[in-house]
Amino acid sequence: MTSVSLAALIAGVRAGSLVSFPTDTVPALATLPEQAELIFAAKQRSQDKPLILMAASAEDLWPYVEGSEQDEQIWKQVVSQYWPGALTLVLPASNRVPKVMNPIDPTTIGIRVPKSAIALKILSQTGPLATTSANFSGQPALLTMSEIDAQFPSVLTLESTAVEAEGIGLPSTVAKWTGENWQILRQGAVSLDF
């Protein structure tokens, strides 16, 4: 069992460990962005499936993306409408994004601010983290900390007393900016209106 307190989980992720915590969609596997290969290895995930950079606020994420002033205005408008929430935006990556986050196409990065009190509490103390759903690649997302603890015994999970079940069990909607408009890559928990 690797269930730990909130403080121990935060300390663990800062030290470079792989952790799991609830979000507003499905529980996340998370680590520091430069340690992202830990997630690919644990999930047995293909390198062509990039990870999401999750943070406590949009301000924490803007340094990781780059675009024209016009693009940025459009992105900020969407963010003000849907964040915090179950929407991941795939945007052009800045040089601050470690290549290991998206090994096949390091020119883009998915970013998201979850609508989850516990996730926001963790992210506000760790800074942006590389994240994805907690499951083996191709398998359904695990929905409880005990399932995650069983499948990933070396991952630090939040002890049940620290967890309020918030997730809806559906992944986030993923929308990619093409330079002109939005392309829906995955329809998830949010129905978009743009």
TrEMBL record:
What name has this protein been given in UniProt? L-threonylcarbamoyladenylate synthase
- List the subcellular locations: Cytoplasm
Q: Which reaction does it catalyse?
A: L-threonine + hydrogencarbonate + ATP = L-threonylcarbamoyladenylate + diphosphate + H2O
Q: Name one Pfam family in it.
A: Sua5_yciO_yrdC
Family, according to the entry, reads as follows: Belongs to the SUA5 family.
Q: Could you list the residue ranges forming a coiled coil in this record? A: none
Quote the EC number. 2.7.7.87
Q: Is the Transferase keyword given for this protein?
A: yes
Please indicate which superkingdom the organism of origin belongs to: Bacteria
Q: Which organism is it from?
A: Nostoc parmelioides FACHB-3921
Chief localization: cytoplasm
Q: What class of enzyme is it?
A: transferase
Keywords in alphabetical order, please.
ATP-binding, Cytoplasm, Nucleotide-binding, Nucleotidyltransferase, Transferase, tRNA processing
Keyword ATP-binding in annotation: yes
Q: Any idea where the YrdC-like domain is?
A: 3-190
